[in-house]
Amino acid sequence: MPLPLPGENRSRVRLLETLIAVAVVVGLCSLGCATAAPHAPRTRRLPAPVIAAAHAEAPQPARRHASPPKDEGVAFVERSLRDAGLHFGTDGSTRALWEYLRLAHRTVAPSGARPGDVVFFDTRAAATAPDCDDDTDHAGIVEAVETDGRIIFVEQRGGQVRRSVVDPGHPTQRRNDRGEIANSFLRAKLVADPPDARYFAGQMLCGVARPER
Q1: N or C: which end of the chain has fewer CB within 10 A?
Q2: Is residue 11 part of a domain?
Q3: Range of 108's domain?
Q4: Where on the phi/psi map is residue 186: left (φ > 0), alpha (ψ -120 to 50), or beta?
Q5: CA pair distance 95, 122, nearest whole angstrom
Q6: Could you read off the pLDDT of 3-23 as tens digits, one per residue?
Q7: Is residue 182 part of a domain?
Q8: Is 127 domain-assigned?
């Protein structure tokens, strides 16, 4: 076999060194080396304990107070009042409308109700007396008052506009002696209701307000 020339030896040595270097790089990459995308920014990650401490010390966003429950009935009443020329603003809750009418206008006794007045109800199942100041949650507009004291009012409930009846003088009576409806049902019976739960409009009537235009 002919002996290699000195220059040829140096070339072979350099080639061998290059191959070894490439093999080392490939071997290291097979153990977890990832090729970065061109121009991809490098992301530095903080140790997990540092991240946890930062979350613990970061100020938490303030919790918003729950909005008062809204009733489709009060939305119907407010639209009717505005259509009649009354200008006002509330948060959309029945209680806010009650407070506005009570303070900016006036309240009247149920026996003195007349068409155009607003009737308010507390439709909770509780057997306690209905309370407009804290728990009113439904409203309607008086359409007519019968000679026997029954109040015919228009309300929106269950997605429908209804003509309902409340008899302040006979709050627990469903029908009168003539077979006429004395009090409409304002809530359905539920299994969880207490034994003395309220269902009739007369049991839930808590106030009458008179908008003065």
Answers
A1: N
A2: no
A3: 72-210
A4: alpha
A5: 10
A6: 454 555 555 445 445 544 544
A7: yes
A8: yes
